[in-house]
Amino acid sequence: VFICILIKIGQIKCTPLSEISRQSFMDVRWPEYFMAVAFLSAQRSKDPNSQVGACIVNQENKIVGIGYNGMPNGCDDDLLPWSRSADDRLNTKYPYVCHAELNAIMNKNSADVKGCTMYVALFPCNECAKLIIQAGLKEVVYLSDKYHDTPEMVASRRLLSMAGVQFRQFKPKRSEIVIDFNSINHRGNAGLCHQRGEQLSQADGERPDSAAVSMNS
Ligand SMILES: [Zn+2]
Fold it and tell me: Which PROSITE patterns match (predicted)?
């Protein structure tokens, strides 16, 4: 059984690898690692249009909070609306959904997140910027800024800048990271994590048990 999880963290063309290498696993740097964790978390979201994940990291490079966008605890994901538009705003997701940033902060497993860095797939909206500031985070690392010109993002940048919270865009060196669960059974444990290459494509096509989860930013 070949099971893999594919995490796409950008649209930069990756160099095809003809073989799975241990070296490529070693090459996962901290920012890439944390952003990949955010993207993997996002896969849990029930939102059909926008799956966003966030990962909070302290100054020792330890993860202290993870979250993804979803309905509040105890509020059924299947009963509340996921629509982006409707005649009545109450029939859209907006009055109900908790953004990934909020959940990551609320899910923290440390006393607080002061001085921490948040890795998040999308630049935070103004409501999340307020939370980020009040929680004492010092930096936001985001991948996509596709809503850059909306009032929410303009207000967010204004707030973050005034509060002295740094923000910078993450530019991944590769477009995706692949996790092959089956690699643990291979000699040498090669390919625990590797770039998507020909072998995965073959696996996709030929092995019905293969699974790939991908995410576009
Ligand atoms: Zn938000």
Answer: CYT_DCMP_DEAMINASES_1, CYT_DCMP_DEAMINASES_2
